[in-house]
């Protein structure tokens, strides 16, 4: 079992920055992948950035060069630094981890980019 709690969302103007955090607790030693997703109403949840099971780091093309994913060495916390934010980045952002063949999700944090 893994519990995830996101924080750091909010309202920001276009061009601004936010840093999201995802605090993980429970069986974090068994985490094999850690990822950020986002979802807007009427659309499917999409992968934003992630530490994949292969060990690689992936970014969605729409955020490459603007967003940076990072995590603590013990995998207890994952971050998403978001710079040069655009209105189209507005979404609910979810933390996801893959542990022993199972996906776990956080409750989500709202990011709104608007002037």
Features:
about 120 residues; single chain; seven-stranded mixed beta sheet
Report what the structure shows.
The protein has 115 residues and is an all-beta fold. It has no helices and eleven strands. It has strands at 2-7, 10-12, 18-26, 31-39, 46-51, 57-59, 67-71, 77-82, 91-99, 102-105, 109-113. The strands form two sheets. Strands 2, 4, 5, 6, 9, 10 and 11 form a seven-stranded mixed beta sheet that branches. A four-stranded antiparallel beta sheet has the order 1-3-8-7, with no helix packed on it. A hairpin with a 5-residue loop joins strand 7 and strand 8 (77-82). The chain is globular and about 40 Å long. The N and C termini lie far apart (40 Å). The relative contact order is 0.32. The mean pLDDT is 95.
Describe the secondary-structure layout:
Layout: E1 2-7, E2 10-12, E3 18-26, E4 31-39, E5 46-51, E6 57-59, E7 67-71, E8 77-82, E9 91-99, E10 102-105, E11 109-113
Parallel strand pairs: 2-11
Antiparallel strand pairs: 1-3, 3-8, 4-5, 4-9, 5-6, 7-8, 9-10, 9-11
Strand content range: over 45%
What is the H/E order? Answer: EEEEEEEEEEE
Radius of gyration: 13 Å
The residue ranges in which pLDDT falls below 50 over 5 or more consecutive positions are: none
DSSP summary, beta strand count = 11
Spatial shape: globular
Please work out how many helical segments DSSP would assign. Answer: 0
Q: What proportion of the residues is helical, as a percent range? A: under 10%
Please give the largest β-sheet: 7 strands, mixed
Q: Could you give the distance between the termini?
A: 40 Å
Indicate the mean pLDDT: 95
**Class of secondary structure makeup:** mainly beta
